């Protein structure tokens, strides 16, 4: 019997159209931010279905979150409330600006930020709420926006997992927050290798983010060198950043975005197969979106039930022995030395996140998986738990 090849935890799904578009870009003479980045922004706005929304392509979601918080004027002395159960990028951008992070616990049913804990964490220094749509399931944004309205707070959504996710049939990115940021990192629901999109309906915020995206320059290079009257002249209005998305990356994004509906169908299909196949096991399965809404299924996270006769680590080792990569999302921020030590955090302050961390595993779920790959995961999980 020959061993099957290792099934990685995640793989991108790039086709001939993406490859041809990148080659076209390389041959075009314009490889950095230019016509394709602009087209990608327009296509993304069309996807969101709202002409009032401005889309600003950036070279990562981290960059987009940084730009959004900079544009709302966040600075030293300010606090931003977010979940401990996230990737460090969500919180590190707050520190870039000299502001502080107030981490709160999660709702164990959804693993999204605990709405009541947000309200309890508000102080006179609180400026903004930064919810994360964990795994691709929408946060109760109506509740978050209501808290923000009542307390005069800004809202920036970390939607790195949430493309396409809906809440009451509205796409994340089109709700009433100040800005929403998507990620096109290699393992996200669509990818440009590295990349992100900052979307906002606030024209002032968009203007500031566009300027800060490229060195604080009043005109970007593509405008300067391709205008009817080419101009060498520009003005620096702020010490900006280098966060622009290249046309090479945007070339990938144009085709990945077209394929997103098909990607979504495939993700749903795999999630449904897992839900059926694991229903009788000592596992708590991930929550589905409410009827009529979309879960992006960026992650498929199972929780070992209290009566499962295996530890989280042994489960992951067993899957690895079966040739299958798994992961844990996340080592919560309160356990990382930087966050723990800066704010004097202990696991007891985040009982739900801590318990989730100790008992959850993310299984492979991506569009490049074949049906046989999906069945391999099913059989391996059943082999360990049934
Ligand atoms: C991937 C991710 C990010 C960062 O995205 P990049 O595009 O890699 O900067 C931020 N937040 C969460 C929750 C993520 O999963």
TrEMBL record:
CDD domains in UniProt: AHBA_syn (cd00616)
Keyword entries, A-Z: Aminotransferase, Pyridoxal phosphate, Transferase
GO molecular function ontology, one term from the record: transaminase activity
Keyword field contains Manganese: no
InterPro entries named among the record's database cross-references: DegT/StrS_aminotransferase, PyrdxlP-dep_Trfase, PyrdxlP-dep_Trfase_major, PyrdxlP-dep_Trfase_small
Modified positions (N6-(pyridoxal phosphate)lysine) in chain numbering: 188
UniProt-annotated catalytic positions: 188
GO biological process terms on file: polysaccharide biosynthetic process
PANTHER family according to UniProt: DTDP-4-AMINO-4,6-DIDEOXYGALACTOSE TRANSAMINASE, TRANSAMINASE
Membership in a protein family: Belongs to the DegT/DnrJ/EryC1 family.
UniProt name for this protein: DegT/DnrJ/EryC1/StrS family aminotransferase
